[in-house]
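Provenance

Sequences were taken from public entries as deposited. Structures were produced by running a predictor on each sequence independently, with no templates supplied. The record for Alpha/beta hydrolase from Bosea vestrisii is shown for reference.
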Amino acid sequence: MSARPTIVLVHGFWGGAAHWTKVIIELARMGHADLRAVEMPLTSLADDAERTRKMVKQQAGQVLLVGHSYGGAVITEAGDLPNVVGLVYIAAFAPDAGESPGGISQQIPPAAIANLAPDSDGYLWINYDRFHESFCQDLGPDEALAMSVAQKAPLASTFGDTITAPAWKVKPSWYQLSTDDRMIHPDNQYRMAERMKPRRILTLDASHASLASRAGEVAALIDEAAKAVAKA
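Predicted structure for Alpha/beta hydrolase:
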């Protein structure tokens, strides 16, 4: 059996590394011992990509980068390191050079865009009483409440930060598309996924929080990618 890569999980907006909890447990049950989850500041794409690069550089061998939501933009920007051998996108942005998450969202606005509100310091929040219906409508109310209260707001300006050289053009990729996503329009997801020409597109009838509501299937896609890129 070939060596498995370290799997580095990259969260998106409105959450932290703990959003990967269920996926981490599933991957560990599949035998993945080398798991890491980045905790990003969500202050700019440059800051978040640099934090991710630092974690990747700390790993001794191959790395499979996995990004949820805005984390897809981060792995697109940070995935150029030589030990990154693959990219997995989970209901995620996969911008091309010169594109930003905000620009992509403006092309086909998601259903819940009206439920975002900036505060006086420039951070962008999902309205607490709209979080469940916007982000994770296929989770139970208790889990949605915890996610809402613990949400981690990004600086709104981060939405406009653009990609320089997209790693998906040179690294193998996989994509999970959520058909009931209200944070990144499914049509935008489909367009981004198709142009990447990924090894596989996994389509799930899921919310934006597919990493929590469909953790088993998301972990299985990551496991598939890890096996495909493993050293011979």
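The chain has a mean pLDDT of 96.
Strands lie at 6-10, 35-38, 63-68, 84-90, 116-118, 124-126, 173-178, 200-204.
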